[in-house]
Design goal:
single chain, 8-stranded mixed β-sheet, 5-stranded mixed β-sheet, globular
Amino acid sequence: MALLSLQLFDPYKIDVNRIPEAIFTELSQPCIAARIKPGMKVAITCGSQGISNIALITKNIVDFVKSKGAYLFIIPAMGSHGGATAEGQRALIEGYSVTEGFVGCPIVSSMETVVIGKSEEGHEVRIDRNAAEADAIIVSGRIKPHTDFRGTYESGLMKMMTIGLGKREGADICHEKGFGHMHHMVPLFARCILKNAPIALGLGIMENAYYETCKITALEPEEFEAQEPILLEEARSHLPIIQFDSTDVLVVDRIGKDISGDGMDPNITGASPCSPHITGGIKAQRTVILDLTTATHGAAFGIGATHTITRRLFNKIDYEATYINAITCTVLDFVRIPLILDTDREAIQLAVRTCNGIDKQQPRIVRVADRVHTHEIWISEGMKEEAEKNPHLEILSPPEACSFDKDGNLW
């Protein structure tokens, strides 16, 4: 028996109709606007993860740059994602409606990089050739806690320059020592890029726990180092956490690179042996993943952090895209194949059966759609009493039997 429950988070957001105004207000600050001059050739970054309203945000950056009399183009900035091919990276952003027709400027996708300098420790630092040859680069990206490491800078503008603009070659160099060193490598490489590349400004995007745009901040490049850590801590407070310390089994309907770099975010779904540098998230004895998102294009990075998957998911895996990402970030455990079961029912049953020291008649189970849709969750009847005592949870339904179709899959 399961109960539908509502998790209560801070609901503040920027209304989608006000996003253009918010962007123009930020970019029109005299110190920011002065950095884009008539006749300039301007590159704008666009990443691989599914940022809410990313097409609208990108279009309005384009419109602002055009209003300044500059020429511009979009650079897919995503390290080795998209199968580490120009075509794959272009397809990823087009899947988010960032198309030439919608945003109103060319998309220039290439995996070619150039060395723009050396880090303070002697590493070659590379960025996309087309971006390096532009007169100005606008670094646009979401600021949030990273899925694999902790540091002063995690996912944000500094990482967008280092890994995103670095493409596969730059990402390879930065990841060489592993995620245990990324807190040091990201700012080390980013400082070199800020010094040697034509970075004109940054646009930091923040989302609330409902996956809605809640803040847009324009920064001068001289402000990146000081301001991004402040924005990161604010973003941390908006994580759509699961409001339980632990559960026996966590069921995740779908994972994908469009949702999180790790397919599912261990900041929320809990750390695993694959993510030893992360703490936090719900603690689960067993984790079940039922499917991949369409937008991940078969990249199943993250399945190694689970215990059982479905045959449906397994049959969708694009091994080349999955392996390239794992090789680049040097974390092979994330792509290990877990136990494969034919149906959702069997995948969940096996997870419960192999839990140790639990009440098998009243197992504690949490089911979420994915990393970004945790406001509504299903919990088993064994968690009802705990949920009723939590002020951040509201039970929406009486206990009801889980609905499986004739093939044994959840509705």
